[in-house]
Design goal:
The complex is a heterodimer of chains A (116) and B (113). With 116 residues, chain A is mostly beta strands. Chain A is built from no helices and eleven strands. With 113 residues, chain B is an all-beta fold. Chain B contains no helices and eleven strands. Chain B has strands at residues 4-5, 10-14, 19-25, 30-38, 45-51, 56-59, 62-67, 72-77, 86-94, 101-103, 107-112. In chain B, the strands form two sheets. In chain B, strands 2, 4, 5, 9, 10 and 11 form a six-stranded mixed sheet that branches. Classes of the chains: A mainly beta (116), B mainly beta (113). The A-B interface holds A 4, 31, 33, 42-45, 48, 50, 55-56, 91, 93, 95, 97, 102, 104-110 and B 32, 34, 36, 41-46, 49, 51, 89, 93, 98-106.
Chain lengths: 116, 113
């Protein structure tokens, strides 16, 4: 079974450039999560969607970050303009939620982002 | 303020022995707890979970214990194997319908042959 698929796996770009990270959740999952992992702060939730609707975006650091989920099988996380402090590993996760008891989140392998 | 704390950054054990990873939390509203394992250059992989209505959950070599009064949970791996060497994250979710998980910073387990 295909897991959560993220692209690209690595991204190196110069500050000021727009960065777009992509995620395809597990088929049939209806919740999608974007996380950022840094040495200082660990793994932090940025935003999550349920049935393609953003539910909690309180973790989005600032207006330079935006996320969309146009359909059940695709989501993007965009940073514009990017800054060196955005360098981190970004993970996407998905889960099946709603009346099924506790269900774990399943993670993709992440995008390692480096802003020069 | 860290709501989920893993106070040991690293742990080293011998193959065949027990590994015990610990996690403390501060939010009494947490009702669902999970352990994830992470290898380098991969995403976290779900390992085992426990609901706050239980105090123990077992799956093969892995057992999670929950002590609600102490706000403490632990993951036991018996027997430990070299392939268990990874970073282990504890995570918690608050009751009330939110799916947000709060993660600890992880414990790096090394199992020596």
């Amino acid at each position: 079974d295909a897991g959560v698929i993220q692209s690209p796996r690595h991204e190196v770009t110069e500050m000021g450039q727009e960065v777009t990270l992509r995620c395809k959740p597990i088929s049939g999952h209806n919740s999608l999560f974007w996380y950022r992992q840094t040495m200082m702060r660990g793994l932090e939730l940025l935003i999550y969607f349920n049935n393609n609707v953003p539910i909690d975006d309180s973790g989005m650091p600032e207006d330079r970050f935006s996320a969309k989920m146009p359909n059940a099988s695709f989501s993007t996380l965009k940073i514009q303009p990017s800054e060196p402090r955005d360098s981190a590993v970004y993970f996407c996760a998905s889960s099946l939620s709603g009346g099924l008891g506790n269900q774990p989140q399943h993670f993709g392998d992440g995008t390692r982002l480096s802003i020069l | 303020d860290q709501q989920v704390k893993q106070n040991s950054p690293s742990l080293s054990v011998q193959e065949g022995r027990i590994s015990i990873l610990n996690c403390d939390y501060t939010n009494s509203m947490f009702d669902y707890f999970l352990w994830y394992k992470k290898y380098p250059a991969e995403g976290p992989t779900f390992l085992i979970s426990i609901s706050s209505i239980k105090d123990k959950n077992e799956d093969g070599r892995f057992t999670v214990f929950l002590n609600k009064s102490a706000k403490h949970l632990s993951l036991h791996i018996v027997p430990s194997q070299p392939g268990d060497s990874a970073v282990y994250f504890c995570a918690a979710r608050s009751q009330g319908g939110s799916e947000k998980l709060v993660f600890g910073k992880g414990t790096k387990l090394t199992v020596n042959p």
